[in-house]
Amino acid sequence: MPTFTLPIFLRRHVLFTLLNLAGLAVGIAAFLLVSLYVAEEGTVDRGFTHADRLYRVGSQLNVGGQSIKLTFSPDDLAEALKQEVPEVEAVTRVEQDRVMLGAATRYFEQRVLWADPDFLRLLDYPLERGDPALALARPDGVVVTRELARTLFGDADPLGRTIEVRHGPALTVTGVLAPLRQSHLVFTAIAAEAARGDKSWAHAKPRPWSDISGVSTYVRLAPGASAAAVGAALPAFVNRHNPPNPDKAGGGMDNMVSLRLDPVPDIYLRVKALGAVAGGDVGTLQVLGGVALLILGIAIANYTNMATAQAITRAREVGIRKLVGARRRQLVALFTGEAVLLAAIGTVAALALMELARPAFQGLVGRDVSLAPLPRGRSWLLPLLLATPVLVGVLGGFYPALVLSGYRPGEVLKGRAQAPGAGRVRAVLVVAQFAVSIALMVATFTVQRQVAHVQAAGLGYQPDSLYLISNLPADLARAATLKAEVARLPGVRGASLSSLVPAAESESLSSFDLPENTRSTLRQARGIASFTADQDFFATYGARLVAGKGLPPGWKPAEVDEDKPRYLILTETAARRMGYAKPEDAVGERLSINSEDPTEVAGVVADMRFQSARRADLPLMFLIKASGEHLTVRLAAGDQRATMAAVNAVVDKLYPDAEYLRRAFADERIESLYQSERRQARVFAAFGGLAVALANMGLFGLTALTAARRTKEIGVRRVVGAKVPDIMGLMAWQFTRPVLLANLVAWPVAWWALHQWLLQFTVRVDQAPLTFLAAGAVALAVALATVAVHVIRVASAPPVAALRYE
């Protein structure tokens, strides 16, 4: 029976073979894991039939030069598209919702899509039970995921069973969805929209197209139709249904509403708009892909370094092979083949490492990554697995093969074999390895500092100890009672109702005329973000008043202020946007906002940032009213658990039927704005650690080879009086010099890349020199520790033994 054996050289030098094998396995595992993740993210929603012709019709509200990009569209857009745009082959609507679904009095909060009967014909999510063409044609039909069916009905057949929507209709299960892949839509059930009865689209009153709710419209274009041509015709189409009015803020005759076509396969990764539930991040993919390639490059450089460093030990073998007739190209093929063989073994080991590392990697990227060999749409995986060892082996082994095959038999047999240029190549590769490691460490430190900085700096208020209850139903009296009862609780320092809180998914744009005798340099205010807040909002948040006296002491908004607010508060950016040279100039101005009765500017506060620092400070205007869907509670410092429990008890008492109240601390919600940046920081940290480990693994091997070759020299130095510290200093300088040079390479590259990355933020940290010095110091310390392992062993050996070493 034939047996598999490693080449003799690989078996003879076990330490270096294992080092190369470990390095290649780690590098290939990182590369393949990231390749799987990037491919999964890049193929989201590409599995639909005719995916290249599927589009979501998104909208944009344009007011005074400002705009809000939405995933939604006008409710009755679908019928108009079907009748007036011949390129549209099919159209459907869907509305995302959160409801309590249940059976037999057991209810569970679920994400549901209310959809047209044709929804599954366009976005054909596969069913494992039921007919997609008929599942939503039934007015009360609903298709559910396998997991939801098991939750509601156990192992019983779900088809034909009834699901209740609390405070809503009864639905009949007409289908069971196959396991869902990642998508821009997140749901556990798709229900026939007609089941909503009086609340369905068929019974809705016509509304102007500028009054956009939560309906999304999808179209499939006819074969050969041009999406660009359809998009170019949309402005005229919108004007026919929503005639433009002269912009009172001086914006001309541009329509307030515009439409666009978002390709369905691009939505998940590339379309960022208000109303999106799920989405990937192209920046994270680029970072992951680039870093994974760098890790693989370090592993390949390790192999190249150690192979060229070991070349002299194989010189006699090369000389003998040439004497018996071997040609150089044959030797190149032989030595490159050894590298490919080692890379193939490394790839097999990498598959095992991938399975071990998968849970940690999934936590790093925030989604499942399947290692199934040939799932749907992954036919590229097998060719990649076959090509990887060949590519890695050739890249890592070709140059050492050229060096080895270049030895001349005569010089080898006389003991004068040299590898010209190999030492310089090794030095360059070591510098490159450590430069990558240092750059990744600098990136890790900087991204972590930036994320911590934007969560606290420049907010304009104090987020600590702010407890938020969101999504309160529209009930002015009940909200007032809630605020009053919560404010009286021990441990509560303030409470406020508002329509804006940190990380709220809400946008607003207003334009209005300024009074004739205004102190502003303008006559119209354009693109002002308008929200509501009660009289205690600014004290609860700790906002800083920069102009005016604020609201009159003891004044509270009355019910009449809901329609005709008496006072408003501006931020500094809003005052500047409205044309006031100084914040003080805005105080006392009487503005006609929503009614003929003017609203007085009671004060100007420092800018308050409620969204990501990637956005410029919004010009905020707060109309002082008693209503709001968010309650903000300022808790006293210290142990806040008892106070939180008391607050929640009051909320549950007053809102026993409110299933969708969201409760969180302000700093938690602010942190959620920077998930992408935090993920990138984790990526840099994880792969930076790998880069340092791999670079020092290679350094460990090079140090071992160098120490072995210089054993006799070290013995002579010891005999003539050199001490162990002297030997350590000599060897350490040889190997730490490339690390020092690596800093000179890494620092400017890292500074430039991070400078470009930081430009996306309006609030950003300085690139402190200490960050770069710390990264360089860590790399140097680890390199010195690696070198010391071998140097101490060799330098501490008896000189006599060293002099006898061959």
UniProtKB/TrEMBL annotation:
Keywords: Cell membrane, Membrane, Transmembrane, Transmembrane helix. Pfam families: FtsX, MacB_PCD. Its main location: membrane. It is found in: Cell membrane. GO terms for molecular function: transmembrane transporter activity. One of its GO terms (cellular component) is plasma membrane. Residues 291-405, 686-799 form the ABC3 transporter permease C-terminal domain. InterPro entries: ABC3_permease_C, MacB_PCD, Macrolide_Exporter_MacB. Residues 17-235, 447-645 form the MacB-like periplasmic core domain. The chain crosses the membrane at residues 14-39, 331-354, 380-404, 425-445, 683-708, 738-758, 770-792. It is a multi-pass membrane protein. This is ABC transport system permease protein.
